[in-house]
Write a structure and sequence with these properties.
alpha+beta
Length: 147
Amino acid sequence: MSSLLECDIPQQNWLTQAGRQNGVAAASAPPHGVKRDTASLSDAGPWEPTVQALVEFQHLGDNWDGQGAVAPSYEQLESAIGLAYTLYQQGVNPPSRVVPGPQGSVIFEWQDPDGTYTEIEQVRPFYAEVLLIEPGQPAKHWTLPSQ
């Protein structure tokens, strides 16, 4: 599979995947407390555990960590699922883990055997910051979408 550095993530692809996988536009989020239907999700191949973890994040409430963390919003989760499918379609390996961030973000992490660490933090719907640290190299940082 390809590396994240080789991937061009156009905003339209991300938006399309989010709409296709979630069945509704992020703007039509359900009322608070209403959970999304996961039956409409397409096969995510090796990304399936990541997608399922993202779906489970909808059950988090604020203060989910006991230290005041903000739960990811419905729109944030819709977007993160769209990003997961976009990366899967680009041939990127699934992350080592995916976790909610304390300010309502969603964080994808890759830890490679050679010591390379990559992180995508989706800080708001359809916008993410990428950090790549390779042994012996200066850290690289960029944002998604790539346009």
